Amino acid sequence: MTLLDFVIVALAADAITSAWFFGEIFDSVRGYFQIFKDKTLTKTEWFFGTLFTCIFCLPYHIAFWTVALLWLPGFLLPEPWQTMSRLPVYAFAVTTVIHFLQQVRPFEAIPEDVHEQIGGHIYTESNEKEGSSNEDQRSP
């Protein structure tokens, strides 16, 4: 495993963890595991309930399985399939980089003329508070 692979695994594990804990799409599944944690029926159900609801515990397991997904295909699959099996890990890593770049240069920082070329309007929090959009503010 190279240094670049290590960085990719770290970024991918962060993306998966963020999606699990903060993504609305996983609310019902997280709630299901929360029930396991709260209403202990067996030790196994308590373990998985705690594991999938603990923001400190789960990233360790996600990182382990991400390393396995990135590293094991090299032993098990021929070359074209090795690369294809790694694509999900790379996609998650790119997602984390995109989120980081959005924090560095938020959407509002895109110049209006560039944004108009791609056919949209610039959304800002001040527009939401005022109840208007930039198009309303740019009257001729």
Commentary on this structure:
This protein has one domain (3-125). It has nine helices and no strands. It has helices at 3-22, 27-38, 43-51, 58-71, 73-76, 79-104, 112-117, 125-130, 134-137.
How many DSSP helices?
9
The class by helix and strand makeup works out as mainly alpha
The count of DSSP E runs of length 2 or more, i.e. the number of strands, is: 0
Helix/strand order, N-terminal first = HHHHHHHHH
Summarize this structure briefly.
The protein has 140 residues and is mainly α. The protein is built from 9 helices and no strands. α1 (3-22) packs across α4 (58-71), α1 (3-22) crosses α6 and α2 (27-38) packs across α3.
Secondary-structure map with pairings?
Elements lengths: L2 H20 L4 H12 L4 H9 L6 H14 L1 H4 L2 H26 L7 H6 L7 H6 L3 H4 L3
Helix pairs in contact: 1-4, 1-6, 2-3
List keywords for this structure.
single chain; 140 residues; mainly alpha; 9 helices; disordered C terminus
